[in-house]
Design brief:
Blueprint lengths: L2 E6 L5 E5 L3 H4 L7 E2 L5 E2 L1 H7 L1
Parallel strand pairs: 2-4
Antiparallel strand pairs: 1-2, 1-3
């Protein structure tokens, strides 16, 4: 597990906190915002936490 500070995209309804998450890594740099954005945690990040 590689926890990182939460980030989100304004175009999505989830946030990411694992740098191995493929969804997180596919967000265009210009769309990455710090924090959770009030969103729920990404399913892939949750699975990587297990």
């Amino acid at each position: 597990m590689a926890k990182v500070k939460p980030t989100h995209s304004p175009k999505s309804d989830v946030y990411h906190d694992n740098n191995k998450c493929t969804e997180r890594n596919n967000i265009e740099t210009r769309n990455i915002k710090p924090g959770t954005g009030g969103n729920r945690k990404c399913k892939h990040c949750k699975d990587l936490d297990k």
